[in-house]
Amino acid sequence: MTNILIATHNLNKRKEIKTLLKDFSNIKVLSLDDIKIDPPRIVEDGKTFRQNAVKKAVITSQFVDGLVLADDSGLVLDILGGKPGVRSARFARKHATDIENNKKLLKLLEKMDGEKRAAKFVCHITLATKGKLLENFEGVIWGMITKKGRGQNGFGYDPIFVPDGYNKTFAQMTAAYKNKISHRALALKQLKEHIQKYIN
Questions:
Q1: What is the pLDDT of residues 8-39, one digit of tens each?
Q2: In this structure, are residues 131 and 63 in contact, taking their beta carbons and an 8 Å threshold?
Q3: Among 34, 36, 173, 196, which one is most buried in terms of CB atoms within 10 A?
Q4: Candidate list 23, 38, 65, 72, residue with the active-site label
């Protein structure tokens, strides 16, 4: 049995990743709450999702046995020069709520229509062990930002993001369905294709 630690304090991300890895019977998925050692809190000061994910995975893996998986993800809009980007979780302010972040984004886009509301969700996942980077995977899904929030499921920008080819926001989809098509699902699908070589 191989331990894999999900290096995030975000309960929603952790739940999503754990669900997506449940197919592996020879992996024990752990969270930071499950380990006795408390790794240092890592400042996510990278300019890209990849930089933040690598930093979290590599540093955390120096303090725990087994594999460490770190994710950094967010929403990107070309019309806003890539924002919210790596600041997606703190777009409105530090420690902002999802509602505050959504409200700020909708306000910035209120006079924009059509392709100007195009957006993409990006997820970068890094796998590391013993302070060494093993693999990087990226998932991207394109869509549009709605005029107002719809749906009660999900988290973050899910209520205002409709993926291309669908007429529902992520927040209107069931978790099971979203987990088949999301940016995180796409990144984890790649991970699942490569992780076997690191499992005992």
A1: 877 777 788 888 788 777 888 888 888 877 77
A2: no
A3: 173
A4: 72
